[in-house]
Amino acid sequence: MRIVVVGGAGTIGRRLVPALRSHDHEVVVAGRTSGDIHVDLTSRETIEALYREVGEIDGVVCIAAHGALDEFGTLTSDALYDNMQAKFFGQVDLVLTGQHYCTDGASFTLTSGIFADQPWPHVTGGGVISGALHSFVLSAAIELSPRMRINVISPTMVGDSTDAFAEHFPGMRPVPMDELVHHYLRSIEGEDTGRVIRAYG
């Protein structure tokens, strides 16, 4: 399959892209400032340009964009909206636009996070975004062309990022990278659709 991995140069991508290539998939890495092609998830125009440039695609994976930490006492609806631009609306645009460019049997694999199910301090935005992504995937699964599929991977803190994030989420058990990659491969290569795949370690 020919697969676009948005955010493929990041923490998860550094493990997922080689795994996809080892399964004989052709991988196009996209990112805001890195990869084979550039795309800004806050810009619908660049998302459409991505699809026009890469041509026929059998799978789209998004592992880009992190939600910002927030302080509830000073949080505003404007700040929430800004936080949602790439992580929620960008991933949604990858699907809404991509359905018109991808092959008939293409799959979309999005990325949410554990905060949709487990509240933690300073991640109200992350919880809202992840919960919204779960709802979007459930709806999109019954609205897309019958042969297209869509799933979302919802990871906890990932194993390769514990040094950067463990201080913010003390006691959170990370998901091992090989387990996380397996979940992505299952979504991309399997037959499931409308699934929220919880990778909580």
UniProtKB/TrEMBL annotation:
Q: Which Gene3D superfamilies match?
A: NAD(P)-binding Rossmann-like Domain
The family annotation for this protein states: Belongs to the short-chain dehydrogenases/reductases (SDR) family.
Q: InterPro entries from the xrefs?
A: NAD(P)-bd_dom_sf, SDR_DHRS6-like, SDR_fam
What protein name is recorded for this chain?
Answer: Short chain dehydrogenase
Biological source species: Nocardia flavorosea
State any single GO MF term.
oxidoreductase activity
Q: Name one Pfam family in it.
A: adh_short_C2
> Which keywords annotate this record?
Oxidoreductase
